[in-house]
Structures are given as C-alpha cells and as structure tokens.
Amino acid sequence: MHTNSNLYCPENLPAQNMKPENITVTEFKEAFIAKIEAMHGKPLSQTSDREKFQALAALVRDLISKNLITTNSQRAKEHPKQVYYLSIEFLLGRLLETNLVNLGIRDTCAKALSLLGIELGTLIDQEEDAGLGNGGLGRLAACYLDSMAAIGLAGHGCGLRYRYGLFEQRIIGGYQHELPDNWLKDRSYVWEYRRPDEKVAVRFGGAVRVQTNGKTRFIHENYERVIAVPYDVPVAGYKNEIVNTLRLWSAEVDVSHHNCCIHGNDCNSVIGYKHGVESLTDILYPNDTHYEGKVLRLKQQYFLVSASLQSIMKSFRLHHHSLSELPDTIAVHINDTHPALAVPELMRILIDDCGLGWDDAWDLTVRTLSYTNHTVLPEALEKWPVGMMEHLLPRIYMIINEINERYCRQLWDKFPGDWDRIRSMAIIADNQVHMAHLAIAGSHSVNGVAEIHTQILKKSVMNNFYTHTPGKFTNVTNGITHRRWLLTANPMLADLITETIGPDWVEYPCNLAQLAPYAKDTGFLDTLANIKMHNKLKLAKYIKAKYNVVVDVKSIFDSHIKRIHAYKRQTLNVMHIMDLYNRLRENPNLDIVPRTFIFGGKAAPGYYRAKKTIKLINTLADKINNDKSIKDKIKVLFLENYNVSHAELIIPASDASEQISTASREASGTGNMKFMMNGAVTIGTLDGANIEIRNAAGADNIFVFGLSAEEVLNYYRYGGYNAWDIYNSDPRLKTVVDQLVNGFFPVDPDEFRTHHEALLRHNDEYFLLKDFASYVAAQCRLAEVYRDKYIWQKMCLMNIAHSGWFSSDRTFSEYAVDIWEMDQPVPIWRRCQPEDYERVMPEHDAYI
Ligand code: 26V
User: For the CA atoms of the chain, what is the radius of gyration?
Assistant: First the structure.
C-alpha cells in the first residue's frame, strides 16, 4: 500500500559499478532524464518542480542503495560492534542536499541540471522538512546519525515514523495557530524503504500467568498485538561509501487477527479498530519540557523500545552464538528517558524469550545500555502512574517491580536506615514509575550534555545516584554536524575557508583553528564581512517576499530562534527591545546602531504563557515596525514556522546569537554552536555549552551577562530573591514592566497579564528582572563593538576558527570510545587534539 519501491529503476543508473563521485555531468543529466520518464511517464518539459524533485531524489537514493548493499555485506562478514541510538525524535530536516554533498556529487548534479535549465536550489526547496522532533534533542539525534556515518561506525538510529511531524505554525493576528504537518502527503517518503518482511509484533494489555511446574515461566495472555513495520532511511557517510540506517517504526493492525470483513463481520467496527491501532504512530507529541501522563505516549515509548530491541536481538542471534557476547557486539543508547523501557524490555527478552536467569540477564542488560540526560527541569522528568503501567504493560511492570525491589535492597545494604535517601532513589515511589531512576539503574553509563549540566546532575539533581555509583557518571558535551551547518548551509563561507586553509577542515574540523592568524588580515576580514552581507541579503529578500517588511541589511541581525519557553527568556529579549524603543522615542536622534531583531520558534500548543509570548513579540513588532518616528532604526520580526530549513537560512545571516537562558536551566543548547560556526557572536549567560563556547572562542569574543548558575541554584534552594525590590529600584525596568499592562500596547489590557504576574506576583522564577540591567549593558557593549568593522569581524572569525571542537564528529567519537567501547578504530584526530580540549575544557574547572 505505502511502497514506492517499484518506481526506482536501477537500469537508469550510469554504469553499474561506477562510484557516484565518478559520474560525469552528461551521465548524470541522462540518468536524470531517464528517471523522470520512468517515474512519471512523461517528458521532462511537462513535469512540475515537485515531480523533478521526486525523480532527482529517487536517482540519488538509487546511488545510495548501492553503497548500502556493500556496507551491509561487508559488515555481515566482519561483524563489527553495532550501536543503536534509541530516540523518540529525529529532527532530520531535508535530506536531498545532504545526500548530494555526502556522495560528493553536489556540483555534478547542479551542473547537469543547469544544462537542462533547472536550478538545483529550486528542487531542494521542494522537499518537505522531516520534522519528527520538537527541538534540541531531536536535532541532536539527527546530527549524530550524520557523524556516525561520516566516521564510518556501524551506528543506527531507531525511532518512530510519525504520520504527522511537529505541527505547522501559522501566525494569525499575532497568535500561534497549529496545523497538522502532513509531511507524507505523497503517502511515502522518498528516502525510505518499507520492509514488511522485518515486521515484529508488540503486545499491549492482557494479563500474565505464572507457570511454576519445573522452571518458572511467565505467560502473557489476552493481549493486543500491534504490528510494527520498519521503514529504513539510509544515512550516507561523507564521501566514504558507508551507509547506515535510521529505522523508523510504523504501527499497523494485525490482519491475521482481524480479517473480519472477509468473514462477514461488522466492517465499520473493524475500520475503527484499524484506525485506533494505527493512530499509535500518528502524532509526535508537541511538548518538549512538560511531561503529561498520556497513555498513548507511554504506548509510543514501549512500541519504539520493544520493536527496536526485538529486531536488534533477532539480528544478533543470527550472527552470534552466545548471549554472553551481547555487550561486546551491541550497544544500545537511551536518548533521554523516553526509551527507558529498554531496561525492562531487554530483561524480558533475555529472561522470557532466551531463558536466562535474572542475574545473568541483569548483568548483560546493564553492560549493553547507556543513557543520556537532556534536561534538569523538574516538570520534564517522566513519571508514569503505576496503575497505567501495570494495565498497559503487565509483564514489563512485573520486571520493573523486581528491578526496584532488588535495587532498593542493595541501597538498604549500603545506606542502612537512610529511608529518605532510598525513597528519593527508588524506581517506584509515590505510586509512580520514575523513568530517570530506571534508566540510571539499568545503564552502565549516564551522561550530561555540557560540563555545567553534568556538574549539576552530579552535585544536585542526581546527587544521590552519583554518590552511589560515581563511576557511571560522565560528561559528553553536545555537538553539531559541520557538514550541514557550515559546509552546506553557508557555501560561500565554506569556500573561503577551503581557499584559505585547504579542504582538510571538512574531515578535520579542528583545522578551522588555522584561520585564527587571519584576524590580522583586513583583506580577509573584508571578505568575511562580504559573505555575511550576501547571506543577510538573501534573508532580507525572503523577509520582504514573505512578510512585506524591508529590513536594513546594514543593521545588526540579532537572532533568537528556538522553542518558546519561559526559561529561554524570549521575554527578556523583548524587554530589552522595549527599553531601546523607549529610549528612541524619548530621543529620535539617539545614535544607536540599527538592529533587526529576529525571533522564531514554536510554543507547545498547551503552553499558555509561551503562546502569549509569541503574541507579545508580534504586538511589539507591529508597534515598532509601524512607528515612523524612530526612522527604521529598529525592526522586529517573528518568522513563522521555525524549522531546520529556516534555521539554515537564518543562522548564516545572523550577526548576534541570543543564548540567554536562566543560568543552570539549559542543559547545553546546540543552536549556540551553529551560530558560532557561522561567525555570529554570542550574547549569553554562563549556561549550558555557552561556557565551552566562551572557553573556545576566548572571553573577548562573546558577550556574557547575568547571574551564575550557582547564584540561581542558591536562590532556588535558599530563597532570598525579591522581584519587587529590583522593579522598584530601576526606573527604566519599571517602565517596561508597567507597559505590559498599562495600555502601551493596543490590545486588551489583560493580554499580557500572565507575563506581568510571572514577573511580580510569582516572584520572577527565571530572574528576568535580576538579569535585565546586565543584559542591557551587554547589548550596549555589543552594539558599540559592532561599530568597528574590523574588531567585530575579528570576533566573528575567532568564533569560526574555534568552532571545530563543536563538530558532532568529536562528540560522537567520545561516545564511541568512552561509552560504547566500539571495536572499530576511531582515529584520535576525530576527537580533536589535546590542546583543543585543554582550551575548551580546562581541567578541574568547577562551574557550580
Ligand atoms: C521532553 C519531554 C518531556 C515530557 C513530554 C514530552 C517531551 C518531549 C521531549 C522532551 C525533551 C526535552 C529535553 C530536550 O530537548 N532537551 C534539550 O536537549 C538538547 C540536546 O541535548 C540540549 O541542547 C538542550 O539544552 C535541552 O533543552
């Protein structure tokens, strides 16, 4: 039903054994025409851009499939250790250009198309973003897929094939409206292979009968069987002929149990049943910070885990004889707690299906699994009601119960009488299953995603676990794929870098440091500025076409793009803009550096305050953009439907990068790294990986402000903060806060009441008032530096030059060597040089 595989015709490819990078322009052109005709049954001249895109993508997929086959047959011979990255989200964005670049045929393709009068960019823009993620966590998973393949490791993603990705955001009257993201409108995804032969069954509900004649057996009965069908998306490595797989599972009804239409049953109820079952993988939950105990979400989590582990174990047993080899040949990574049911599910498979005893099964499970924590926000920590878990997953619940009992007993032996400690670490407590506790107990490694985040886990959020098993805890600072975020997204900058230091930086991103000496070369800095201008013009053109707003390309492009959340403090940015605007209105001749404030981001549909923040930004934009008195010195824009493709347009065109979360709340951030790599200067708090960015670029090349994480955590712990005092002591701040509710904005006076109350009545949980003055001061410093072209460009250059360490190739290599203990050699340079580490992570530095 869904398959499109018959549309791909290998016979249209150039010579069978030809490597993609050796294909000539003429051969590519002919293969493209042949593919168009075979796929659409009409000549090129009659096809739409969309049809041309489909044919081009199909042709590229054909080329990748050859490498997929050779990679798989090679691995079947060599049996390298395989890593499986389990994640409920993979935010892939578009893949056509990435695949062309990774195959080394981007230029060949562009030339071939131009001979046919077609612009490659036009076809690239036809691809829908695969938005199977909310934000940072999902995009990180996608960057890791790219790095795993680039490094050539046998690493695969396991996720869900949501029928609808993250909602499409429309702004109407300043408010966010959510539309379904129908990314599969052609019913299939051009990059995927449906593999019905590799389907597995996942069981929900029913009851467990314990049989004790001889060996104890657990018999699961009266359950509902849901079929998990895999769709494999090939992931091509950068010019190395390696292809890994992202396996996305889709729920289907078990036809063998419900062939009722044929047997004269009630068709309507059957259709309803089918809908019910298949709705399991219909939607991605659009929350990224607020845990909701929805049963469908728990079903999704178990579906992902069970389908993935069953298929992993099937392939393991095909190639290996002894289960004791499991941790040496397989690593399974749990990306946040969403796949934490991997712990009891692997136990279930080893005990019930493979016949192991508890102790052996537990030993193998812990040695196979590892877990990354991505947030310290208490409201995001997942806890499932015991009743729900027991009802939906009776056998899994039994196993969790047993794990909990044994774990608590162990804790009791070590900390006798310390009930409070044991209660705080229990996997089941207060009638809830604590997923982070389950993940920690069942993994051999637990890591945070930036140095300060790991320190907070160790010293505060997970302190009891750290005291119990300090050896499990480690830090792996996040990274981003420089192939997407620099090489592809910013081709002019990439070309300049290659002309200047040669092409090796693509393979060895830390080589970007060789750019640093050019800080003294004004000619080079001029070129850098020209490239930024080119990118700004491109963004300005897009803004004019879409929003009919003219922006001044000489102004500072100041971007704040990320999910909308109180802790990310978009409102603090708004408050600075309001203050700047107030100053301009008082004195229209005030000599300020013109600014374009760019916002983008989605709010979770049920997150009232975040949605009001969007309205606040849009209301402010209307007021400022239409006020002639300020002579276009500032503009504010909220760009609709922020996604990966929009990020690729905005980031290379930005001068300033807003990373202004309340210190201690942002685990790492990865947008911060993307901006840095594209030569934008960070204005930020000492939070998440901003700290590593400051260390790498140098304290002179970033604008830091605000409370430290330690100060924030002390306020949270001991109190002592009074928002009113700050409000009353700073008249400029007072004006801005009052303006939220005093009729300054032409809206209902209650429109922004929530913001006002959060700041004063609720004592400003995220310290906007406290950080306001130092933020405004940092913004002034930034603007003053911007006036001096060469000082500014030097800062940009130092950011680019020291961004190589943030490549996810480095991050991924750390996981591969330190956590998964992969047996394939990971060249040491992939991890950057010791001096790079020393610079970015000075040893013994405590941040809290
Ligand atoms: C959390 C939850 C909470 C329960 C409801 C559904 C849901 C869905 C997704 C998430 C993920 C939140 C965690 C997350 O995205 N963390 C971000 O991870 C990035 C990659 O490590 C990191 O850079 C960001 O700082 C961090 O906020």
Answer: 27
CA proximity to 83, closest of 314, 233, 245, 321: 245
The residue ranges of every structural domain in the chain are 1-78+104-128, 83-94+136-385+436-444, 482-501+508-556+574-593+643-846
pLDDT of residue 268: 64
Give me the pLDDT at residue 762, please.
98
Pair 47, 119: CB distance under 8 Å: no
pLDDT digits (tens, 9 = 90+) for 717-762: 999 999 999 999 999 999 999 999 999 999 999 999 999 999 999 9
Stated as kind and residue range, the H or E segment containing 273 is helix 267-278
pLDDT for res 319: 87
How many CB atoms neighbour CB 66 within 10 A? Answer: 18
- 674 catalytic? Reply is yes
**Residue 357 DSSP one-character state:** -
> Ligand 1: does its nearest atom lie under 6 Å from the Cβ of 159?
no
What are 313's two structure tokens?
Answer: 């174990």
Q: What is the dihedral of CA 80, 82, 83, 87, to 10 degrees?
A: 150
Distance CA 60, CA 636 (A): 40
Strands 224-236 and 243-253: antiparallel
Chain position carrying tokens 């289907």: 252
DSSP-derived letter for residue 17 is T
Q: Which residues pair with 177 in a beta bridge?
A: 170
Give me the amino acid identity at 641.
Answer: N
Distance from Cα 137 to the centre of ligand 1, integer Å: 5
Question: How far is Cα 377 from Cα 379, in angstroms, rounded to an integer?
Answer: 6
pTM, full prediction: 0.96
Both structure tokens of 543:
């803004």
Top-tier CATH class for 482-501+508-556+574-593+643-846:
alpha beta
> What kind and span of H or E run contains 559?
strand 556-561
Would the CB of 456 count as within 6 Å of ligand 1?
no
Q: Is 806 near ligand 1, meaning CB less than 6 Å away?
A: no
What's the start-to-end Cα distance of the chain, in Å? 56
Both tokens assigned to 404: 């909990």
Q: How many H helices and E strands in the chain?
A: 33, 25
- Strand positions, DSSP E, 423-502: 428-429, 432-434, 445-448, 473-475
CATH class of the 83-94+136-385+436-444 domain in this structure = alpha beta
* Neighbour-count burial of 280, counting CB atoms closer than 10 A to its CB (0-12 exposed, 13-18 middle, 19+ buried): buried
Residues 116, 32: contact at Cβ < 8 Å? yes
CA of 380, closest atom in ligand 1: 3
pLDDT < 70 regions, the chain = 1-18, 257-268, 828-829, 844
Pairing of strands 155-160, 243-253: parallel
The residue among 290, 241, 848, 257 whose CA lies nearest residue 563 is 290
Quote the ligand 1 centre to 623 CA distance (angstroms). Answer: 34
- DSSP code, position 817: I
Q: Is the dihedral of CA 123, 128, 130, 133 positive or negative?
A: positive
Q: Which of 635, 674, 694, 755 is catalytic?
A: 674
Q: What is the DSSP string of 530-553?
A: HHHHHHHHHHHHHHHHHH-----T
Task: Let me know if 259 is exposed, middle or buried by CB neighbors in 10 A (0-12, 13-18, 19+).
Answer: exposed
**Identical fold, 83-94+136-385+436-444 and 482-501+508-556+574-593+643-846:** yes
Describe the crossing of helices 570-586 and 608-625 by its angle, rounded to 10 degrees. Answer: 20
Query: Which residues, listed in sequence order, are joined to residue 445 by a DSSP beta bridge?
Result: 370
The DSSP annotation for 298-326 comes to HHHHHHHHHHHHHHHHHHHHHH-S-GGGH
Q: From the CA of 453, give the closest atom in ligand 1.
A: 25
pLDDT of residue 265: 57
560: which DSSP letter?
E
**In the beta sheet, which residues pair with residue 194?**
231
Q: Is 380 in the pocket of ligand 1 (CB under 6 A)?
A: yes
